[in-house]
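In response to a reviewer's request, we include the raw inputs and outputs for one of the modeled complexes. The two entities were modeled together in a single run.
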Amino acid sequence: MTVATDQLESSLDEPLEIAGRKFTSRLIVGTGKYRDNETMVRAITASGTEIVTVAVRRVDLDRTKEEGILHHLDPDKWFLLPNTAGCYEADDAIRYARLAREAGFTDWIKLEVIGDEESLLPDVAGLLEATRTLVSDGFKVLAYTNEDLITALKLEDAGVAAVMPLASPIGSGLGLLNPYHIRLIKSRLEVPVIVDAGVGTASDACLTMEQGVDGILMNTAIAAARDPVGMATAMREATVAGRLAYLSGRMPRRELAVPSSPTTGMLD
Amino acid sequence: MSEDTVSIVLNGEEREVPAGLNVRELLSHLGLQEGAVVVELNREIVRREGYDAVEIEPGDTIELVHFVGGG
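The model returned the following structure tokens for the whole complex.
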């Protein structure tokens, strides 16, 4: 099945292009919350992703915890996309982005400016402020945002490399709550639209990709599954399936049945 | 505080380290590999090429960060 879909995908689809860089997989995967690093590496390998997100945190000077994630992730195998998760102010996010650039030798940043601890929804004013500073500082900003067209347009205006509207709140697993708004954003933007956060299971990923977006980013749905490697495989297939379904053009919806078999030639 | 140590704030905690260390020596004192961390000294990033020239002063605030798993 995997071989067949890969062949179909390559013949029907084009690569995902972000800031001039091309990727075959449209699935981006986070590296947080895995029970151990070995499971994390196996899961992201199974997902087929080419981009993985990482966070910036203090080194544990007492060595009670694991070493940095670069001991486990080969940067030649996966493109590392640092985030500014946990930042509630534009200035904090800018500080984290600069530290990330130094740590990862990359000017790509998944920019999060969070507005509220309970919902982890974005602070769009802070997001726009941080975006403008980081873009003028040469960063390729992939902006985590609400599923709001106006914010998405402002982010594009500000020079982001991609807009990343949420499917539902981070870690909620509620799936795609506002497909209409996601389609609206996709229909109006030139830069890639990558749905980030909220996916719970494979059907959510498939439904999201069926909206025509350029990619999808998830972490908890894989990391918190009972079998993360199995779920990563499911997400890989679902992302491809949703993309192919979108490219293939779904049949129109009808209120009433239409027979699939001939209505003629029936026996008396 | 003895004469041959200085007090700094390291990753949010006050800490005594030997006096007169530069950044490279501080990392080595802490047993950290240079390539594995980013150094922020009083809110300014210290680039790797500056590790020998930048000395740790009493009262400095230092953050040592790296990549961890995240979404």
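As requested, we also summarize the result in words. The first strand of chain B starts at residue 5 and ends at 10. Chain B touches chain A at residues 10-12, 30, 32, 36-38, 40, 43, 45, 47, 63-71 (CB under 8 Å).
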